[in-house]
């Protein structure tokens, strides 16, 4: 039958699989679902006009494009990184499909994206602790508790 990739293009498939998984998780899901909705809804639910640390929030926001560019730069490295989005064996230990330069770019990009997420988490926990909930009711909205537990993880 017809194949989408030739047998010698298995490494290309693994590179695209790696990039797609990392981009979807670390460049869309974490920033959009956690930071995006958190920055919009958390101040509303705690009765605040803004999150408590807006400069940390800005640093967190500007680390996202930087980390994204570094992560995507791994795709244009010499051969690309075909280590899978989880970076576990067997793909991460295969000498034939692993490019250490591309893996270094992925790790550097994930470090910036992770720092952005951690700064957002610090901001959310600080906002809930120091701004309180609406009318002083700490057991208020389930979303506030979900953000706190997600931030602490």
From TrEMBL:
Pathway: Energy metabolism; oxidative phosphorylation. Signal peptide: none annotated. PROSITE patterns: COX1. Residues 1-153 form the Cytochrome oxidase subunit I profile domain. GO terms for molecular function: cytochrome-c oxidase activity; heme binding; metal ion binding. It is a multi-pass membrane protein. The chain crosses the membrane at residues 22-46, 58-85, 105-130. InterPro entries: Cyt_c_oxase-like_su1_dom, Cyt_c_oxase-like_su1_sf, Cyt_C_Oxase_1. Keywords: Copper, Electron transport, Heme, Iron, Membrane, Metal-binding, Mitochondrion, Mitochondrion inner membrane, Respiratory chain, Transmembrane, Transmembrane helix, Transport. It catalyses: 4 Fe(II)-[cytochrome c] + O2 + 8 H(+)(in) = 4 Fe(III)-[cytochrome c] + 2 H2O + 4 H(+)(out). It is found in: Mitochondrion inner membrane. Its main location: mitochondrion. The keyword Transmembrane helix applies. GO terms for biological process: electron transport coupled proton transport; mitochondrial electron transport, cytochrome c to oxygen. The keyword Hydrolase does not apply. GO terms for cellular component: mitochondrial inner membrane. Its EC number is 7.1.1.9. It is an enzyme of class 7 (translocase). Belongs to the heme-copper respiratory oxidase family. Component of the cytochrome c oxidase, the last enzyme in the mitochondrial electron transport chain which drives oxidative phosphorylation. The respiratory chain contains 3 multisubunit complexes succinate dehydrogenase (complex II, CII), ubiquinol-cytochrome c oxidoreductase (cytochrome b-c1 complex, complex III, CIII) and cytochrome c oxidase (complex IV, CIV), that cooperate to transfer electrons derived from NADH and succinate to molecular oxygen, creating an electrochemical gradient over the inner membrane that drives transmembrane transport and the ATP synthase. This is Cytochrome c oxidase subunit 1.
């Amino acid at each position: 039958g017809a194949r989408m990739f030739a047998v010698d293009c298995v490494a290309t498939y693994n590179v695209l699989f790696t990039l797609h998984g990392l981009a979807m998780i670390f460049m869309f899901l974490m920033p959009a679902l956690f930071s995006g909705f958190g920055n919009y809804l958390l101040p509303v639910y705690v009765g605040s006009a803004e999150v408590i640390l807006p400069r940390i929030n800005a640093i967190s926001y500007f680390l996202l494009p930087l980390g994204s560019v570094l992560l995507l730069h791994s795709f244009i490295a010499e051969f690309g990184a075909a280590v899978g989005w989880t970076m576990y064996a067997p793909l991460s230990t295969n000498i034939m499909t692993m490019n250490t330069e591309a893996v270094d770019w992925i790790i550097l990009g994930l470090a910036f994206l992770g720092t952005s997420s951690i700064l957002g988490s610090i901001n959310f926990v600080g906002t809930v602790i120091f701004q309180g909930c609406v009318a002083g009711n700490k057991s208020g909205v389930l979303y506030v508790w979900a953000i706190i537990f997600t931030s602490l993880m």
